[in-house]
Amino acid sequence: MLVWAEVRGTVINGTTGKPASGVEVHLVVLEEGMQVVEKRQTDAQGRFAFSTAVTKPTMVRTTYQGVNYHEMVAPGGASVTLRIYEARERGTYAVERLTYLVQPVEGRLLVGREYLVRNSMTPPVTLFRPEGMFVFALSEGARPERVSVIGESGMPLAIAARPAGDGTWRIEHPLRPGATPFFVVTQLPYEEERAQIREVLPWNVERVRLLVPEPMRIDAPGFRRLGSEQGLSVYVLDSARAGMELALNVSGRAPNVLAEESEGETRGAVRAVAGPIAKRQWSILAALAAAFAASSMLAVRRQRARALRAKEKSSHTPSRVSPRMDAVKEELFMLELQRQRGEISAEDYEAKRRALQHALEAALRADAETSA
User: Within 13 Å, how many C-alpha atoms sit on residue 186's CB side?
Assistant: First the structure.
């Protein structure tokens, strides 16, 4: 049984590098949703302490300038450092990669887009506007069927987007320091097994990737073929500039192999999506999105792991929270926000919560075994 007799820690303002005083911190138990069991305000040195004894996975969280921040409590009641940042409505971000992923289904072409967005502001700040910070463009008349932010574990969690005019949309999600991956799904008519994707880039992007099931054909001016990746033909375009129009002509058939293999795993996420696409069709793209997200985030995970090892080596202190545990707690927090906003059904919420709860408990056990 996991027990903490006392939880204490410090809130640091990552923008100023100084302790944050007068910040309300919540002690949250991750079971049956998120239960706040105690609240405290930080003192002049940014310190806080809770005395509530808990026997479940726990985290501390706070909301600062409209943005939520949270940190897991490690086994044994070790001290927690909760880092917050000043929120700015104005600032710059970079789109490191845009990837298109297509799948034909029963007279429609499902088009998934992954945007890897990086906030490298100096000093570090969170870019945040209530109406949304990150802007993306779609073809004329298209609208997003599903918008997700993708956690490190590869699980897409639904968020909102709103039209911003001129074919662009804003995603209602803060850009914290570092990389944030988003996934957007649209559909096009595909009854004649032919469709065109035409979109004007609103920003520069270092690399555009196009993933197409190998039986299909693609005409993509400016792109070069790199080879295959898990049954998908891979095409790339480097250093695309703002204002450039992408014209992608897709044709042909492709097998729906992922629909049968992963329908049971993705069904909970699929039912939560509103839109004209049937449940089975969403299973196909949800499976592709999850598999692609897990694959595309490997480089980010490796970078974070190297940084973590370097930090541990320099400080000569063991890691208190594994990257896996950090990813799961992020998704638990976002899932709870979805429930509070009424964006997910009770059935789907419970199914996702149980899955994440099991993942969190497994991560905690693994950390405990490593420590032992």
Answer: 21
Domain that holds residue 68: 7-84
Q: In CATH, what number is assigned to the domain containing residue 208?
A: 2.60.40
Identity of residue 41: Q
Q: What are phi and psi of 368, to 5 degrees?
A: -65, -40
CATH of the domain at 27: 2.60.40.1120
Same domain, 232 and 250: yes
Sheet of 217-219: strands edge to edge? Answer: 194-200, 245-251, 217-219
| Cα angle for residues 304, 306, 311 (degrees, 5° grid) | 95
Count of domains observed in the chain: 2
- 346-371 and 323-340 are packed helices; what angle lies between their axes, rounded to 10 degrees? 160
Asked if 26 and 38 touch (Cβ cutoff 8 Å), the reply is yes
Q: What is the pLDDT along the chain (372 residues), one digit of tens a residue?
A: 444 457 889 999 999 999 999 999 999 887 766 788 899 999 999 999 988 766 677 889 999 999 989 888 866 666 899 999 999 999 999 999 999 999 888 888 989 899 999 999 999 999 999 889 999 999 888 899 888 887 554 567 788 899 998 889 999 899 999 999 999 989 999 989 999 999 999 999 999 999 998 889 999 999 999 998 778 899 999 999 999 999 999 999 987 644 443 333 333 232 223 333 444 455 555 555 555 554 454 444 445 555 555 555 555 444 444 555 656 666 666 676 666 656 677 777 777 777 777 666 666 666 655 555
Claim to verify: residue 189 and residue 284 sit in the same structural domain = yes
